[in-house]
Amino acid sequence: MSDKRFNVAVALDKEMAASILGADDLEFLKSFADINPVEELPEEMTLSFMEKIFANADACLTCWGTPGISAELADSAAKLRLIAHAAGSVKYLVPDNYWRPGRRVTSNAPVIAADVAQTVLAYILFVSRGLWTFANSTKRGEWSGGEASTFVTKRLNGMVIGVVGASHVGREVIKLLKPFDCAIELYDPLISDIDAASLGVTRVGLDELLSGCDVVTLHAPAIESCRHMINSDNLALIKNGALFINTARGMLVDESALLSELETGRFFACIDVTDPEPPAADHRFRTLDNVILTPHIAGGHTETGRRMLGKNSVSEIYDYLHKGVLKCEVRQEMLGTMA
User: Fold this and answer.
1) Which strands form 82-85's sheet, in the order they lie side by side?
2) In Å, how far from its chain's centre is CA 269?
3) In the chain, where does DSSP find H-type helix?
4) Alpha carbon distance 208, 75 (integer Å)
5) Taking phi first (over 0 means left), then psi (-120 to 50 degrees means alpha), and beta for anything else, what does residue 234 get?
6) In 3-state terms, what secondary structure has residue 331?
7) What φ, ψ does residue 34 adopt, rounded to 5°?
């Protein structure tokens, strides 16, 4: 390890620091950098606190709860050359004037993607095997398993899974599904034939995916061009008995149109994100038997996952300051097609 010392600003509130940074992570960080004392972090991170700790910082560590860096702070932090964001999206965090030669950004979006993908797989298995239906029926005093489940429940082998968006999460979902020997169709207008072939998926149009797949799972970015990409015109194409999953963002779906389809009971939905959040207390998503509604917990909210966020960010800081490399870099030109 190089003897050179760096200065790293830990711009996390006290609770977040405790959540994502283990003792070993802090020990490693302190082995190559001087940091502001974590025991003195505020309950709520503020720009005024960040101005103090950014003054001599080579890099900073941010996460949920860190305010967006102001243009003034980006200018005054003359030595700052890496923002290591332990959460996902950096759009709210990084001002336009930060992006100049010698300054880099890294994000944990790929790390969080693994969390989300596991949730998606859990939804698929839970619903396709009828576990939601059977769990509810047994609570009502019924016992209709065995032969009653034949031709109603499904195993993943041989199913057709439709992935909308070859994002970090979309790619992780594809990876998790591979051992189940199911057919995977992908809709993403920006993916190349070479990339699709390397993923082992079949590129299709959105309408073809919606009409032909047993499962449809959304992983498109929350950008304006994707708003209501799932709407009254194409929701009707979804197969009877299919499963629709949204762990991306609520704005991708015209919720009133989705609700109209779900009220017919002809397919099932697992919804982790809504627009707005939270949905109204009397929203029909909360009461329909063919809907599993979860409170935006698909990714980044597991105990072990949180620790991975801190560990990966500290590793990125070390690798960049010592070797000039990043595994999870976000470049300015990427922002137009990512959340």
Assistant:
1) 33-35, 6-10, 59-62, 82-85, 104-107
2) 18
3) 14-20, 23-32, 47-53, 71-76, 109-128, 131-139, 168-177, 193-199, 206-212, 232-235, 255-262, 303-323
4) 49
5) alpha
6) coil
7) -90, 130
0.85 exceeded by pTM: yes
Q: What is the pLDDT of residues 131-176, one digit of tens each?
A: 988 888 889 898 876 655 544 788 999 999 999 999 999 999 999 9
- Give the SS3 label for residue 123: helix
Answer positive or negative: Cα dihedral of 299, 301, 307, 313: positive
For the purposes of burial, counting CB atoms within 10 Å of the CB of 309, is it exposed (0-12), middle (13-18) or buried (19 or more)?
A: buried
Reading the block at residue 165, the tokens are 């968006």
pLDDT at 146: 61
Which residues, given as ranges, of the chain have pLDDT below 70?
1-2, 145-151
- Check residue 271 and give its pLDDT: 98
At 181, list the tokens.
């020997």
Q: Quick one: pLDDT at residue 153?
A: 86
Nearest to 261 by CA among 282, 243, 274: 243
Q: 258 with 238: CB under 8 angstroms?
A: no
- All structural domains of the chain, each given as residue ranges with its CATH number in brackets, are 6-107+302-337 (3.40.50.720), 112-293 (3.40.50.720)
**What pLDDT sits at residue 149?**
55
